[in-house]
Structure formats: C-alpha cells, structure tokens
Write a structure and sequence with these properties.
By secondary structure, the protein is mainly α. 83% of the residues lie in helices and 0% in strands. It has nine helices and no strands.
Length: 212
C-alpha cells in the first residue's frame, strides 16, 4: 500500500508540475490524489477481504454438513491426508479418529488441510481496510510535502528525491523479507517510479497547458 501511494502520487505531482501548474494547484492535486487513492485502496481491501471471508464461511458450511452426513468418508480422507504428511497408516487412522470425536476440531483440521486456512484466524475486513488506507496515505503524502513551502523546479526535484529514497527503501525491505537481492529489488522499485514520473511529466509537457 505505501509503495502504491508513493509511486502513484509522485507521478501525479510530477505530471501536474509538467503542465506548468502553480504550486498551490500541484499541492491541491497531490492531497486530493492521496485521499482519493487511500479511500479507494481501503474500500477495495474491505470488499476483497469481505468477499473472501464469505466464500470461506460458505465452504465451512458445506464442510460441516459433510462431516455430519459422511463422517466415515471424511475420517478416511483425513487419515489419507495425514499419511500424505508422512504418518504411518495405523497412526494416521488413530489420529483421524481422535480428531473426529470433536465436530469443531474436525472442521478446523479439515479447513486447514483442505483449504489452507484456520477458521478462527480469518482476517478482519475493517482492520485490513484501515491498514491499507493508512499505508497508502502515508506513501502518497510524502511527495506533496515539498510543495507546502516550495515551488517550481526545487519542489519538483525534492518530490522526485523523496520518491526515489522511499522507493529504494521499500524495495530493499521487500527484498529482505522475500530473501532476495535487496539492491536489485530497490533498483526495480526506483526504475518503476522514475518510469511512471517520466510518462506523466511527458504527458504534462505534451499538453503544453499552463494550469492556473
């Protein structure tokens, strides 16, 4: 989210700067873009997580029904899963029988084994939405800061510098978490940001409109 906000709003600010717009208009566009993007990101995350949770709850309803109607088949399926994880057949059968003694435990185990999720640890849509909103907003506001007190080329280059430093830092962090080359990850993020800025700035110049 923060990377999205940073790249999109640096591009927006630089695009407006390319038109020759006054600093107050660039500033207004930057803040408007930050707020609109953050709201869109948060709303999209809420919709996505809510839909995902609804689908999972539906799968749990179906699985709960199967456990009640075809308990023997579900137990055999669970034992087969345990054997697939390396358990001896007899041990797998015993473990499956123990799990099936508790309907809720059986449901949780089947959900983890078949769908790769824990029914008790589903993401909360509103929390995810607020986190996405905040991350995008922070990233998007940073490149607007130079326009609060500056204007023209100095503010434009300051926005680009903030974008480059932020993109490099976020790229390096992603590389670290992904256990990949941090330098390459940082350079990739910077290249994407500079490419986006070049496109929007070029469009602004091409329009050749002095927005006032």
């Amino acid at each position: 989210g923060m990377s999205d906000g940073l790249i999109s709003n640096v591009s927006l600010v630089i695009g407006f700067a390319g038109t020759g717009a006054k600093s107050d208009l660039v500033r207004l566009a930057g803040f408007a873009g930050a707020i609109a993007g953050a709201v869109s990101m948060g709303a999209g995350e809420w919709i996505s997580i809510s839909a995902q949770n609804e689908l999972i709850h539906r799968e749990l309803v179906v699985e709960r029904r199967e456990l009640g109607v075809n308990a023997a088949a579900e137990q055999a399926e669970l034992a087969a899963m345990y054997q697939g994880h390396g358990m001896e057949p007899a041990t797998a059968l015993q473990a499956a029988a123990e799990v099936m003694r508790s309907p809720e435990a059986a449901l949780a185990v089947h959900a983890r084994e078949e769908f790769g999720m824990d029914p008790d640890e589903l993401p909360v849509a509103m929390q995810a939405a607020l986190l996405s909103f905040a991350c995008f907003l922070v990233g998007a506001v940073l490149p607007v800061v130079p326009w609060l007190t500056g204007s023209g080329s100095s503010a434009k280059w300051a926005s680009i510098l903030i974008g480059v430093v932020g993109a490099a830092g976020l790229g390096a962090a992603v590389g670290t978490f992904a256990e990949r080359n941090k330098t390459l990850s940082a350079l990739r993020q910077v290249a994407i940001l500079l490419g986006a800025c070049a496109v929007t700035y070029g469009i602004g110049k091409l329009l050749n409109v002095n927005v006032s």
